[in-house]
Amino acid sequence: MPGRKALIRRPGPRLTEGLVTHVERVPVDAGLALRQWERYAGTLREHGWETVEVAPADDCPDGVFVEDTVVMFRNAALVARSGAPSRRPEPAAVEEALGRLGCSVDRVREPGTLDGGDVLKTGDTVYVGQGGRTNAAGLRQLRAAFEPLGARVVAVPVSKVLHLKSAVTALPDSTVIGYAPLVDEPSLFPRFLAVPEESGAHVVLLGGGKLLMAASAPRSAKLFMALGYEPVPVDISEFEKLEGCVTCLSVRLRELHT
């Protein structure tokens, strides 16, 4: 499909120092993480996505989690301003890459904070997590950027996990999936499907009914197969130790017109 690109950024030398908020810190194998990242990027390419590698952010331990740096709606990019001050240098190289790809670019400005991992899009509906890294001013700026383009923005409370997409993502038919103990208000989603594993709540839509997901959620994979989807598992164990998931490691650009 023309225009399907994915921004990625390789793990930096300080990856093992990445922030953790809702989990206990455990050792991360940096060498294994790099191999897992390479396999993740290769899987995207195998399924028709052109990967665009953003310049390294070697001083930023969490730089590999590139999804948090920007939110896309159609061809418009809203560059994030993280609620974690240590992560605020990360978006600069991402913004440069988006400019080269022909995206229109706006930025979240102080006092707003916004992490891309707090934003879940299903069709024209944009759910925005509130309570962690994204504040009310960030939400207002996202509304101002995207509502004129046709977005319907819905605020969602987040208290049990780092980001909204740590708790929920969505299937191609817009059914929101989540691990129920970590979802604050499932009733806010018109269709909600509980999955049996925490990591089963995270899918990347590859196209053609294929779902990129963590290898650590085999029961959820069986559930998706029963619904007619094709799971594409990848091992991201080292990133899961840092509260990462399959969505965090790329920014998917589906509607580029360059």
Structure description:
The protein is of the alpha/beta class. It has one domain (5-253): L-arginine/glycine Amidinotransferase, Chain A (5-stranded Propeller). Helix content is 21%, strand content 24%. The chain has helices at residues 30-46, 91-100, 136-146, 164-167, 218-226, 237-240; strands spanning 5-8, 50-53, 70-73, 76-79, 104-107, 119-122, 125-130, 152-157, 168-170, 176-178, 192-194, 203-207, 210-214, 230-234, 251-253. The strands form five sheets. It has a three-stranded mixed beta sheet, covered by helices on one side. A hairpin with a 2-residue loop joins strand 6 (119-122) and strand 7 (125-130). The two termini are 14 Å apart. 46% of the residues are buried.
Which short descriptors sum up this protein?
three-stranded mixed β-sheet, single chain, 6 helices, globular, 21% helix, alpha/beta, 24% strand, L-arginine/glycine Amidinotransferase, Chain A, 258 residues
Summarize the structure in short.
With 258 residues, the chain is α/β, with parallel strands linked by helices. It has 6 helices and 15 strands.
